[in-house]
């Protein structure tokens, strides 16, 4: 007798998650949102930011978010194995990007832009794969898409000066932080369309 093979799943529904799993995702989203908004504001407010300062704050953000993603992937046993593995792998990539930016803050502007771009694309993929089928679905989807678009812009658009890089990155961090906060607020809520049924 053959055993049925269940396909790998890279997304999940809110009703499949336990209370602790939803809380873990909510905390991860809040950590990312608060840190993202703070980094954006600090970098915008810092007069005459140097490349070293910008790299430090961005590296710190990616390191902490990567750590949270790895933690969620390891600790949250209610998720499918494929989501847990993907969370850990992409979290490790964010950790590596964060460590690189923290250890090599005087790298060239091009390297910093590539690092930020790759990290945002990674974070966008994570956001899309971990979108929950509840009220936060659209915020999570928009967060993922915006992260990927911002990452692609950083990799392929010629950002010729630190001032342009800093302003664009800071505002992108703030916008992405707002979307993470909205995802955290609506996480676990049943969409109104489903309530009406």
UniProtKB/TrEMBL annotation:
Q: Where is it found, in Gene Ontology cellular component terms?
A: plasma membrane
Provide the transmembrane region boundaries.
21-47, 53-72, 84-102, 108-126, 138-157, 163-187
**Presence of the UniProt keyword Mitochondrion in the record:** no
Pfam families assigned to the protein according to its UniProt record, in alphabetical order:
DUF308
**Quick check: keyword Repeat in the entry?**
no
Question: What keywords sit in the KW lines?
Answer: Membrane, Transmembrane, Transmembrane helix
Coiled-coil intervals: none
The lineage's top-level taxon is Bacteria
Q: What is this protein called?
A: HdeD family acid-resistance protein
The record lists the organism as Subtercola boreus
Q: Lineage from the top down?
A: Bacteria, Bacillati, Actinomycetota, Actinomycetes, Micrococcales
